[in-house]
Write a structure and sequence with these properties.
The chain is 31% helix and 22% strand. The protein is built from 8 helices and 11 strands. Strands 6-5-4-7-8-11-10 form a 7-stranded mixed beta sheet, sandwiched between helices. Strands 1-2-3-9 form a 4-stranded antiparallel beta sheet, with no helix packed on it. β5, α4 and β6 form a beta-alpha-beta unit. α2 packs across α3. The protein is globular, with a radius of gyration of 19 Å. The termini are far apart. The site of zinc ion (ZN) has 8 residues, from loops.
Length: 288
């Protein structure tokens, strides 16, 4: 059950997102993964992190669900539709680039709503299938070496992506380059500061949890963001102006008057939700 020591790089001595060397041990999980916290920007991250070889092997066997129940598909469709509708409050449909587009559902949703869509993901077999299904360009390979047009996109979209890579700062710099002035960055990430996660962390530290730190999901999540950390980093280090921080716009599984009212509350109070979304625009010419 414990992760082998060979799966890890040497420990990081500086925060990968802000560069500060003021990093401290914060928590660990039941498999032996260690979580650090940057005292400067507040972001938590696995430290040491997995080796590239370990991650390559993990993602090689990370097969996306192709057979899902109609109920689950309908829920995901409603979720993606809500996400795209939320960002459309800040940007009319134009060029849309989804990094980590998975099975392409959000590309289909955005295309149907009038966006010109392109995507990127790591698995060449899946991306070829998604490109055909959606009728769009879906890139694979080295994200940072793609022939993408800079300053050309109206929206760059990363939903449940930024917690995975070892270099999230490179992703944010790429987003800044790709967006046109006034364009919109949409980021959805798990919320490590949600009420539920905070409670689970406290139970773990008190020794009251069988699988301590399970909510960090260290099988493939390396960074742990909060509404108090990521938006501030976007503004202070990555040249964005944050327009909105909200609980994930997903609708409840069973719509009802109470469910819809709760959705509205969660959007305004991100700590109530297990993930949150940030909408930001690049400040062109800003240092980054
Ligand atoms: Zn930091």
């Amino acid at each position: 059950m414990t992760i082998p020591a060979t799966a890890f790089d040497p420990p990081l001595t500086a925060c990968p997102l802000c560069g500060s060397t003021a990093i401290a041990a914060h928590d660990h999980d039941y498999r032996g993964a260690r979580i650090a916290r940057c005292r400067a920007c507040g972001v938590r991250f696995m430290n040491p992190q997995y080796t590239d070889a370990y991650l390559a092997e993990y993602y090689a066997t990370y097969i996306q669900e192709e057979l899902e129940s109609p109920e689950r598909k309908a829920r995901r469709l409603a979720h993606k539709t809500a996400n795209v509708a939320a960002l459309e409050r800040f940007m009319a449909p134009g060029r849309f680039f989804s990094i980590g587009c998975g099975d392409g559902l959000e590309l289909q949703v955005a295309k149907a709503r009038g966006w010109q869509v392109e995507g990127y993901d790591v698995d060449p077999v899946t991306t070829a299938r998604v490109a055909k299904k959606v009728g769009a360009t879906v890139y694979t390979g080295d994200l940072f070496a793609l022939p993408l047009e800079c300053g050309a996109y109206d929206c760059v979209y990363l939903d449940q992506v930024l917690e995975h890579p070892k270099n999230p700062g490179d992703y944010l710099r790429l987003c800044h380059r790709l967006l046109r002035p006034g364009g919109v960055l949409y980021i959805g990430v798990p919320n490590i500061a949600s009420a539920a996660s905070t409670f689970k962390s406290a139970l773990g530290k008190a020794g009251l949890k069988k699988r301590r730190g399970k909510h960090y999901d260290t099988f493939h999540h390396l960074f742990y963001y909060a509404p108090s950390t990521l938006p501030r980093l976007l503004e202070s280090r990555y040249g964005f102006r944050v327009e909105r921080v909200m609980g994930d716009p997903k609708p409840r599984a069973k719509p009802s008057v109470i469910g819809r009212a709760w959705d509205a509350v969660v959007r305004r109070v991100p700590m109530l939700d297990s993930s949150f979304a940030v909408i930001a625009r690049p400040v062109k010419g800003a240092s980054k």
